[in-house]
Write a structure and sequence with these properties.
heterodimer; A: alpha+beta; Alpha-Beta Plaits; DNA polymerase, domain 1; Dna Ligase, domain 1; five-stranded mixed sheet; B: alpha+beta; DNA Polymerase III, Chain A, domain 2; 3 domains; nine-stranded antiparallel sheet; eight-stranded antiparallel sheet; 7 helices; about 20% helix
Chain lengths: ~400, ~375
């Protein structure tokens, strides 16, 4: 509990995670330029690109059509969210053996606080190396790790070490490590701030760290001095495990149609699919929601929302569907093609489900849902689906 | 109309009829109190459609009979602030009533009066919603204490929000075989109590009432003279009489759920516990439940019950106490507020919990012929 206890914070990042998982499933993809993402004909974008594909200038969020133009030999895989989630769980379960203080940032990235575990696993650098080898041997995935005394430096260190590397910044060495790096590597400095800094000839973190504090405050407001502090590698943000993190406010899903449509079957099918996905996430996180918002964006980019609140919170797709269907009908009153459908479940609460005395069927329905979730987890999200979703066949 | 009435008697009478003053009347007359003076008594009547109250004040000096509908809220408020021992109400020409008490004088504009109709001394108002007279043999006569206990034992379990399917916002009152059954439920817990009648026609009857009228009876019934209450099942309302107080409640037309099907008959596990100990431990655990979803875990094993709770980020609580139980034990979870409310309404110091498993309804026996059924909480897994 002493204030001077050294901190050991790790930033772990799985390299080209989606592609790596696909390569575990299909080793023929190894060594080839591979991307995961939707087909170009349905406005698909690149969700992940292998390092071979990146060599062609392909990166995440790039339209798939553009990626295929850059690399005609590109192999495109549609991807499976369920498979990536399972792989991610396996990795984090393994990392959980080193410390319970894990802050998951996304499916393939997390911060770990190893402070105080030296007696168990040795120095944090050794533990990190062991971790990488274990993930590679047991799960055949590449893990890059940045090790330092705080989150910020570890994050930059892991980016520096990619792919499949390990980089350690010793306490006190942070300013030296940061000094030669360009300002844009610092998390929080986007293209706009980087351009403004460049206007003042502040191109490197070392220069930023030495710049007059008053000048930064005048130019960037309160963010100026904070930015300078970070440029020196100072960061006191703790690693927040799930139980210390602020509660999730809502769960939402939305999807743009490949072509704008007013076909009620497609709209219903899409809405039902989104609702099923959102409810599955609720159940996965052991949450119940009280309010549903359905969103439509029309071809002319006019966006409309309608919401409904249940007396009893629920995580059951069919209960929500009863509410969502009339909402969709009301929203479709506008005579325009629909570009996007979205759902958002909010008013989330944790943990327990209150059954009804007069609805014994509800208990059976919950059992069915649990079986459904298990089947979908094992055989993929589309393995069992409601009838309305069949209209979506051929759609991405 | 001119009367001289004891201030406290008038104030008490207004308190009894106040709950049925229509707050947002479509017709302004409905927001009033009908005051009728005849012989040596005054009758007050209010009616807000969901319920009506008629109360007779005896031993009033009626100098001139008549009637007037006075603005309800204003009448109640000014009488609360009068100080002299007596109040004189005088209907003036031009539709005003002078309310005089000592040196204080208020004048209220009547919403309707006998002066308007020229039928002085005879009732009644033409636009004020009247209620039928409670005459003839009542369907039920029962001990007043039993009735008030029945109300208190079921009222807390009714739903606060309307349900589209069932009339769970109301309380079911059922008469069969000289026994009155009252049931309140919100779909997740259910309180059911049975009490014998002492008289009445004995014909089978059943009605679902809004709790409002029962609240009014519970509040003032104890002060009324007599040890019994008489109940009439009328066309679309139920009338109650205790002493000088007559209350009428509108009957809900929605279906009441089939309550008898959900009351378990016995249970695999039977736990007997001291009510006060159980309440204390539950209250302790309830301080450390999640704000968004209150949950206490209850686990019982041989002669021991553990009540535990956890609030992520705040802490956890665990409390043990001795119970009378033999068996392999069970772990389940409840909303603590549901059990605490039931225990508060319990009639006996010892309560009995009967439960089959962690997902089926649990039955608490809280007194003679008094059952309370609660649906457990299931963990989301």
């Amino acid at each position: 509990m002493s204030a001077s206890r050294p901190r050991h914070v790790l930033h772990v990042d799985l390299d080209a995670f989606f592609v790596a998982v696909e390569r575990v499933v299909d080793p023929r993809l190894c060594g080839r330029p591979v991307v995961v993402g939707g087909p170009p004909e349905s406005r698909g974008v690149v969700a992940a690109a292998s390092y071979e594909a990146r060599a062609y200038g392909i990166h995440s969020a790039m339209p798939m059509s553009q990626a295929l133009r850059l690399c005609p030999d590109l192999v495109r895989v549609s991807g499976s969210r369920g498979m990536y989630t399972r792989a991610s769980k396996a990795v984090f379960s393994l990392l959980g053996e080193y410390t319970p203080i894990i802050e998951k940032v996304s499916v393939d990235e997390a911060y770990l606080d190893l402070s105080g575990t030296e007696h168990l696993f040795g120095h944090a650098l050794d533990a990190a190396d062991h971790m990488r080898r274990e993930v590679k041997e047991r799960l055949r995935l590449d893990l890059t790790v940045g090790v330092s005394a705080n989150r910020l430096v570890s994050k930059v260190a892991s980016a520096f070490a990619k792919p499949c590397g390990l980089f350690d910044v010793r306490p006190g060495q942070e300013p030296r490590f940061f000094a030669p790096l360009p300002v844009k590597v610092l998390p929080g400095i986007g293209p706009v701030t980087a351009t403004r800094l460049r206007d003042f000839h502040i191109d490197y973190l070392g220069v930023l760290a030495e710049t007059d504090r008053w000048f930064l405050e005048e130019t960037f407001g309160r963010y100026g001095p904070a930015m300078q502090q970070r440029a020196r590698g100072e960061d006191r943000t703790p690693v927040c495990p799930p139980w210390e993190r602020p509660e999730m406010k809502s769960i939402g899903h939305e999807r743009t149609f490949a072509e704008d449509t007013d076909d009620p079957r497609l709209l219903r099918g899409r809405l039902q699919k989104l609702l099923e996905q959102a409810c599955a996430r609720l159940r996965e996180k052991q949450l119940l929601a009280r309010t549903l918002t359905v969103k439509l964006r029309f071809a002319d980019f006019v966006t409309v929302n309608r919401d409904v609140t249940l007396a009893q919170p629920s995580d059951h797709d069919l209960e929500w569907w009863k509410e969502a269907e009339p909402l969709l009908e009301r929203l479709c009153a506008r005579r325009a093609l629909v570009r996007l459908v979205g759902v958002r479940l909010s008013g989330l609460q944790q943990g327990f489900w209150q059954g009804s005395l007069f609805d014994p069927e509800a208990v059976a329905a919950r059992d069915r849902l649990s079986v459904l979730d298990k089947l979908r987890g094992r055989y993929g999200e589309g393995s069992l689906q409601s009838g309305d979703r069949l209209w979506l066949r051929g759609q991405s | 109309m001119k009367i001289l009435i004891d201030r406290l008697a008038f104030r008490n009478a207004l308190a009894r009829v106040e709950m049925a003053i229509d707050r947002k009347p479509t017709n302004p007359v409905h927001g009033g109190v009908l005051v009728e003076a005849a012989n040596d008594h005054v009758v007050l009547l209010t009616n807000d459609v969901d319920m009506a109250v008629r109360y007779q004040v005896d031993f009033v000096q009626v100098d001139q009979p008549g009637w007037a509908v006075l603005p309800g809220r204003e009448l109640v408020d000014i009488v609360k602030d009068l100080e002299s021992d007596t109040i004189t109400l005088t209907l003036l020409d031009g539709g005003q009533v002078e309310v005089r008490s000592g040196d204080d004088l208020c004048t209220l504009v009547t919403l309707e009066s006998s002066a308007d109709t020229g039928r002085e001394g005879t009732s009644h108002s033409e636009s004020f919603p009247l209620v039928p007279a409670l005459d003839g043999e009542p369907a039920i006569t029962m001990d007043k204490g039993d009735f008030l206990v029945s109300v208190n034992s079921t009222r807390f379990a009714t739903a606060r929000m309307q349900d589209s399917r069932f009339a769970t916002e109301g309380i079911l009152m059922e008469l069969a075989d000289s026994v009155v059954t009252m049931v309140g439920t919100d779909g997740r817990r259910l309180a059911c109590i049975r009490r014998p009648t002492t008289g009445g026609s004995g014909k089978k009857a059943r009605a679902v009432l809004l709790p409002k009228v029962l609240d009014q009876i519970y509040r003032f019934g104890q002060d009324e003279e007599g040890e019994s209450i008489s109940i009439w099942f009328l066309d679309n309302m139920v009338g109650f009489r205790m002493g000088n107080l007559e209350s009428f409640g509108r009957v809900l037309n929605k279906e009441f759920p089939n309550y008898s099907n959900v009351i378990p008959q016995g249970g695999k596990h039977v736990v007997r516990a001291h009510r006060e100990s159980f309440s204390k431990k539950l209250r302790l655990a309830s301080h450390l439940t999640q704000e968004s979803a209150a949950v206490v875990r209850i686990a019982f094993s041989a002669n021991n019950m553990e009540v535990a709770s956890e609030n992520e980020g705040r802490g956890r609580a665990s409390a043990n106490f001795e119970v009378d139980y033999v068996g392999e034990g069970l772990k389940t979870a409840f909303n603590p507020a549901y059990i605490l409310e039931g225990l508060k309404a319990a009639h006996s110091d010892q309560i009995e919990l009967q439960i089959d498993d962690a997902v089926r309804p649990a039955k608490f026996l809280l007194g003679d012929d008094y059952s309370y059924v609660v649906m457990p909480l299931s963990a989301l897994v």
